[in-house]
Every structure is written in structure tokens, then in C-alpha cells.
Amino acid sequence: MDEISQLLGTIGRVRSDTLSSDATQSTGSKLALRHRLNQLMTCLDDLDPKTDLHEKVVKTLDSAFLSCAKRANKPKKDNFRLHMVTWNVATADPPDDVASLLHLNSPKTPDLYVIGLQEVYSGPVRFVSDMIFDDPWSQLFISSLAPLNYVKVSSMRMQGLLLLFFSKLEHVPFIRDIQATYTRTGIFGYWGNKGGVSVRLSFYGHMLCFLNCHLAAHMKYANERVDEFEHIMDTQTFDCKKAPRIVDHRLVFWFGDLNFRIQDHGMHFVRSCINNQTYNLLWSHDQLIMLKKKEQLLQEFEEGSLDFQPTYKFDLNSDTYDSSGKKRKPAWTDRILWRVRPKSPPSDEQDENNVKERKQLKEEEEYPLKVRQNLYTSHMEYRISDHKPVIGIFTLELTKMHQTPLVSLQAEGDWSADIDSMVLYNPLQPFPSSSWDWIGLYKVGFSSVSDYITYTWVKDDEVAFNDEVMQVEAKEAWKVLESKVAVAEGLLPERINGLDRIARNEEF
Asked: Angle at the Cα of 82 (from 81 to 84), degrees rounded to 5?
């Protein structure tokens, strides 16, 4: 625009003097821009095409049009709302209601829920039962979110540690590469009362990882907590070329009962600051904040201000800090932090790592991702544990890498439980097929990806990326394979499959 202004000045012919000086200077406004374009059209009428000035005008306009075209073709950024919860439930049974904890009555509905619990009761009988059926805590969150069209996409359990990932149904086709794992750190790595569980996935092409930890307790073990965290980060790996380790993910959330304490300050001073809500006077002696100053890995993680009272340790069924003989000092043990992968400076070397880094840098420029924290607080009304739950609400601003699902599916003809059925499917994008690919049949309103009524395998050689529509014939394949929902509906495999055999023998 500066070049065009200079050219207009050179031509020197302006027929419209209706703009005030203030409006003329506001070149960013649409009104000013329209007037300047009118000026330009007037000037072009008298411009000799054989002059150097004509050539300059053409080049300048070409450059301006190119800039506008690039801006118009730039992918749109979308905002997604993420609601996170961390809560050490101290082996308690779930409360009757978690609507407040999940902000279910808020006009702003999250796109994703990530819930991390610690010290979920894992006695031998209960733990075995929870391996077969959803544990009571999972049942509570599923029953609370399913009516609002949320689906449990993934979960991970390691003794008392539980991680749940929910998504609105509309996003499920764009959540891919889902993997979950765990790391034990209790009793020299042999016991899972402490450690970390994680779920990682691709969300519209962006690699995200959620790590729920329960680290070593007690004031004096601050450095051990950092060692445990680094061990978890180093040892957890995934079958994914793009992000084989936690640190390779574009965005990582680290949360849980991290057990960092407030050191040096005495009990009287800490409680006085809490009563006066002068929490900032305690921050400089919070162990995690202190350790971030000297630990490189911790420095890469961000955290919102601790503008809420410490969440540990309370007498059960009360809002009173520990009144037992131990009188443990209050602390912000329950935390939510996040890390956006740092940009690596480009290198001139041509080895494999540098090629990968340059590819990552290009992807980050083309598909940016930003994180904004909207809320970081505790919920004091829940009293079943000696910890208070902490929530973090975030806005993920990102440019989608994927706009279409991987596969389109269509039922062929009328379906009935007692006859063979057919599914037509068409890959919409190239993707690595596997002998483990399958097509599931779900009830409308299903609450979890494991709630299939039945499924059929898709053979590896049946998947190809072209214009061809492929079909899966549902004969043997559509036998009812046991799922939690099928069992609840009374669709036992031996019962339904027996009916299938009778129907095929025309004895039914």
C-alpha cells in the first residue's frame, strides 16, 4: 500500500477530496481503502501504458493481489474448548453428582473432557471387577456425559490411577492414532500405586498427549518427584513415527497429584495467607515453582497462577485443613501444566533428525496451534476426599490438518438381525491399512467406542485408496461378538449366533 501511495503521489491527479485527513490516514479501514481504489481507477485513465510508471503500477498491483490471494487461501483457525479435571479421590466412592465439576450447566460446552483420578479404590476384588466392567467412577462420568452427546474415546487404568478421554461425537472421526500406556514408579518400579498413565492421539492432525501422574509423597522427596517425572517421560514410548515419545507431541498436558509441597514457611504463616487469600506470598516457596528455575524439562511446561487455596490436606467431609495429630501443612499438590513443543532452530546439516525438524517447523508454520487457559481453580464443595478436585479449562486454537473422515460407510439394503447384511465403505484419504481394521455396529447414542453391539474385520487387502467402493459381506463376520452393551442387552453370543445357524438351516 505504501508503494501505491507513492505512485498516486507521482501521478498527482486526485478528483475526490471528500475524505478528511484522519480518514485518509486510516488505510486499514474499508472505507479508506475503497476511496483509494477509486483514486487509483481515476488516475489509471490518464496513465500512458508506454511509460515506466505504468509498469511500476502493474507490478505493485500484482504484488497486492498476490498478497490478498495468499491471505484468502490461508486455512481457517478453529477454537476447541478443553475441560480438564484432576482429583485424588482417596479410595472414596463417587459422589452422587459431578455436574458442577464438569460445568454441565455452562452455556459454553467443551469439545473435549480429560479426567485424571488418583487413588481410585483398587482392592483385589474390585480391581478384577473393574477390569471386566467399567469402574464406578468411569460409570459416573460416562452416565453424566453420554446424554450430552459425548463419547468415551479412550481410557487407561493402573491400579489407583485412572485417565478418561471424552469427545463430542462430531469430532470422533478426526481423532486417530489413539494409544495408551502406563509406567510404575512405586517400590522401585514394581508397584503401580505411584507412576503415570497416558493417552496420546491425533486431533485433526495435531499430536496431543495427556499424562496423569501420582508422584512420591512427603515434603523431603521433591527431587525424587522430578526424577520420577523424568523417568516417565523417558520410558513411555508409542508406535508412531511422528511422535514416538511424549516430548515429540505438539502439545502435552501433565497433571495429577504431583505432590509438591510448600517448604520453609511455617504452618501459621501458610494458614494466615490462605485465610487472607494472599496466595502469592506462598508461590516462591512452592517446590514445583522453585524447581522450575533449575530443571530444563520443567521450564518447558507452563502453568496458570495458583489463585485458589491449596487443595491438600483436608479432614474428610469438611473444608477444614488437617486437624489430626500430624497437622500436615496445606499444599498445592494437585496441578495441571502444559507444554507446546519448542521450535527447533533450522540447521544446515542433512542428517535424518534435521530433516525431521525442518518438516516439523514447516508444519508448525502452516498449521499453527496455540493454547489459552480460561480457568484454573479448585472445587471446594466436594468433601469425600482429603484432596479437592482441580479443573483447568483451555481454548485450543488450531488449523485443522484434516477436513474429511478417513472412510465413508453406508449400509446396503434393509438390515435384519436374522439375515446376512452388507456394508459399503469407501476410503476418502490414503492411510496405512492393517489386518486389525474393523467396522463396528453401534446403537444410536452410544457412550463409548467399546460399546459396539457387534463388529466385522476388514481384510488388509480389501482396503485401497481409489475411487472404488468396496463391500464387506456380513455372513460369518456379523456374528455377535461379546461386548459390554451386547451383554447388557441380553445379546449373548451363544444365543444370537445359534439363531443365525437355525435361520441359515431354514429351521427357524
From this structure: 150
Cell of 275: 485465610
* Contact criterion met (CB below 8 Å) for 253 and 337: yes
If we measure between CA atoms, which residue out of 83, 222, 231 comes closest to residue 165? 83
Checking if the pLDDT of 488 tops 60, the result is: no
Strands (E), 303-342: 334-340
Query: Distance between CA atoms of 234 and 323, rounded to whole angstroms?
Result: 39
Q: How far apart, in whole angstroms, are the C-alpha atoms of residue 353 and residue 107?
A: 45
3-state secondary structure 340-399: ECCCCCCCCCCCHHHHHHHHHHHHHHHCCEEEEEEEEEECCCCCCCCECCEEEEEEEEEE
Distance CA 429, CA 255 (A): 35
Alpha carbons 335 and 301: distance in angstroms, whole number: 12
Question: Rounded to whole angstroms, how far apart are CA atoms 471 and 425?
Answer: 6
For residue 465, which phi and psi values (nearest 5 degrees)?
Answer: -95, 95
Q: Chain-centre distance of CA 139, in angstroms?
A: 21
Q: Are 431 and 425 in contact (CB under 8 A)?
A: no
Tally the C-alpha atoms within 13 A of residue 226's C-alpha that lie toward its C-beta: 19
H/E stretch holding 503 reads: helix 493-504
Total-model pTM: 0.80
pLDDT at position 480 is 42
- The dihedrals phi and psi of 384, each to the nearest 5 degrees, come to -80, -10
- Asked if 262 and 332 touch (Cβ cutoff 8 Å), the reply is yes
Please give the angle made by the CA atoms of 89, 95 and 97, to the nearest 5 degrees.
130
**Tens digits of per-residue pLDDT, 261-299?**
999 999 999 999 999 999 999 999 999 999 999 999 999
Least confident span in 84-93, 125-134, 259-268: 125-134
Per the structure block, which three cell numbers stand in for 399? 488449523
Closest alpha carbon to 449 in 260, 251, 183, 167? 167
Q: Which contiguous run of DSSP H or E holds residue 124?
A: helix 124-132
**Residue 198 amino acid letter:** S
Is a pLDDT exceeding 70 seen at residue 6? no
Nearest 5°: the CA angle 337, 340, 346 is 150
Q: What mean pLDDT is predicted for residues 67-78? A: 69
Integer Cα distance of 60 and 10 in angstroms: 14
Distance from C-alpha of 88 to C-alpha of 161, rounded to nearest angstrom:
9
Highest mean pLDDT (candidates 36-45, 250-259, 412-421): 250-259
CA 271 to chain centre: 36
